[in-house]
TrEMBL record:
GO terms for biological process: cysteine biosynthetic process from serine. Residues 14-118 form the Serine acetyltransferase N-terminal domain. The lineage of its organism: Bacteria, Pseudomonadati, Pseudomonadota, Alphaproteobacteria, Rhodobacterales. This is Serine acetyltransferase. It comes from Roseisalinus antarcticus. Pathway: Amino-acid biosynthesis; L-cysteine biosynthesis; L-cysteine from L-serine: step 1/2. Its EC number is 2.3.1.30.
């Protein structure tokens, strides 16, 4: 006797919401029907849709969409945590970005979300010893999205990169869970040393636009780095740093800066 087919959408509320939003979007704007059907409604689950989207964005004359799709499908089958992290990232974008009004938007339109998921694919390839494919993914992410994340970097879940232009994350960088950063952030080294040379960002950290964190230093959990700052030394947990070079200017101001997204530096009088 054949087993009953499972309704994947009902087991996956993120995917269910995406498909419901997609159906409404097609009804409201039929000219978007081709893209939305190809990217969302033709797929049985989130993993398949994400693999397709990444393949379409990263493909080129040098590497076909079909080959990239097979690589992504293989990765999601072998490592379910990849899609779990993608779901966490998508929800993080929806909750923290005021320009995101639907779950389907990051999957379809937001290069920050797409770049992080492509990095995750490259990181899986790197861990599997498929170094040249990982470098190819890194190259295409840089070319297409303007985001350069080394495939050996370690990045947690619930990541939101807003606007995402000119992001650089180095080879030995570590980024914790529930981190938010804006455009033009660099997690870089300080010279030509060839060892553990990049920053370690704790959980719940908010990194403002244009901030540079350089060297093998630790940024403590739930801290804030003000826009345009250059961080060259350790940052304690739950503090706000600002300036060039950055110094502690106060407390973080809340329990989860990366979620509140409050980037205003308040004076002692609250002005």
């Amino acid at each position: 006797m054949a087993k009953p087919k499972l309704d994947i959408a009902r087991l996956d509320p993120v995917w269910q919401r995406i498909t419901e939003e997609a159906e409404k979007a097609v009804a409201a704007e039929p000219l978007m029907g081709g893209l939305i059907h190809a990217t969302i409604l033709h797929h049985a689950d989130f993993e398949s849709a994400l693999a397709y989207r990444l393949a379409m964005k990263l493909s080129s004359a040098e590497m076909s969409e079909q080959i990239l799709r097979e690589i992504a499908d293989e990765a999601f089958d072998a490592q379910p945590d990849l899609a779990a992290a993608a779901r966490a990232d998508l929800v993080a974008v929806y909750e923290r970005d005021p320009a995101c009004h639907r779950f389907m938007q990051p999957l379809l339109y937001f290069k920050g979300f797409q770049a992080v998921q492509a990095y995750r694919l490259g990181h899986w390839l790197w861990q599997e010893g498929r170094v040249d494919l990982a470098y190819f993914i890194q190259m295409r992410v840089s070319e297409i999205f303007g985001v350069d994340i080394h495939p050996n970097a370690v990045i947690g879940r619930g990541i939101m990169i807003d606007h995402a232009h000119s992001i650089v994350i180095g080879e030995t960088a570590v980024v914790g869970d529930n981190v938010s950063m804006l455009h033009s952030v660099t997690l870089g080294g300080t010279g030509k040393e060839d060892d553990d040379r990049h920053p370690k960002i704790g959980n719940g950290v908010l990194i403002g636009a244009g901030a540079k964190v350089l060297g093998n230093i630790h940024v403590g959990n739930c801290s804030r780095i003000a826009a345009g700052s250059v961080v060259l030394s350790e940052v304690p947990a739950c503090k706000t740093v600002a300036g060039v070079p950055a110094r502690i200017v106060g407390e973080a101001g809340c329990a989860q800066p990366s979620i509140s997204m409050d980037q205003i530096l308040k004076t002692a009088t609250g002005a």
